[in-house]
Amino acid sequence: QVQLVESGGGLVQPGGSLRLSCAASGFTFEHYTIGWFRQAPGKEREGVSCIRSSDGSTWYADSVKGRFTISRDNAKNTVYLQMSVLKPEDTAVYYCAAGSDMTLLSLWVLRPPSWYDYWGRGTQVTVSS
User: Fold this and answer.
1) How many angstroms separate the CA atoms of 24 and 64, rounded?
2) Residue among 42, 40, 38 at smallest CA distance from 109
3) Cα–Cα distances in angstroms (integers) from residue 16 to residues 39, 95, 100, 120, in the given order
4) Can you tell me whether residue 106 is helix, strand or coil?
5) 82/68 Cα distance (integer angstroms)
6) Within 13 Å of residue 16, how many CA atoms lie on the same side as its CB?
7) How high is the mean pLDDT of the chain?
8) Dihedral angle at the C-alpha atoms of 42, 47, 49, 55, nearest 10 degrees?
9) Helix (H, G, I), strand (E, B), or coil: what is residue 115?
10) Which of 6, 25, 49, 87 would be a feasible disulfide site paired with 70, CB 3.0-4.6 Å?
């Protein structure tokens, strides 16, 4: 059974940190680019970060650059998103998705939802005092 399962969300104070995990099963994880997206209430889905399978290249949205770090452990079929210096505007449901590699990662995150091969169900991140 193909699955992407996010975990690690929760409630954190501004300035705090969280590490999200995206665990994959049922497909050849190491062949896919994995990305993190988020959606806040009333807002459109936003690409946060992604990591390419072929060379480990990464991309970050300007809003999280310098605060978030994406990494992958192919032996564990897991991608991580280390989030630091969290802000209230980071509050959202965070999703991970798997898709084919693309040369331009900035375009990878802009594909329509149906383009990606697999999606997780999301994990809630709330940044509030």
Assistant:
1) 24
2) 38
3) 20, 20, 33, 24
4) helix
5) 5
6) 15
7) 96
8) 160
9) helix
10) 49
Q: Can you tell me the distance from the alpha carbon of 110 to that of 21, in angstroms, rounded to the nearest whole number?
A: 22
pLDDT of residue 109: 93
The pLDDT value given to residue 29: 87
User: Tens digit of pLDDT for each residue in 105-114?
Assistant: 999 999 999 9
Is 46 within 8 Å of 37 (Cβ atoms)? yes
How far is the C-alpha of 101 from the C-alpha of 124, rounded, in Å? 27
- E strand map for 15-115: 18-25, 33-39, 46-51, 58-60, 68-73, 78-83, 92-99
CA distances from 36 to 47, 57, 129 (A): 6, 14, 25
The two structure tokens encoding residue 36: 């993190």
Q: Are 11 and 5 in contact (CB under 8 A)?
A: no
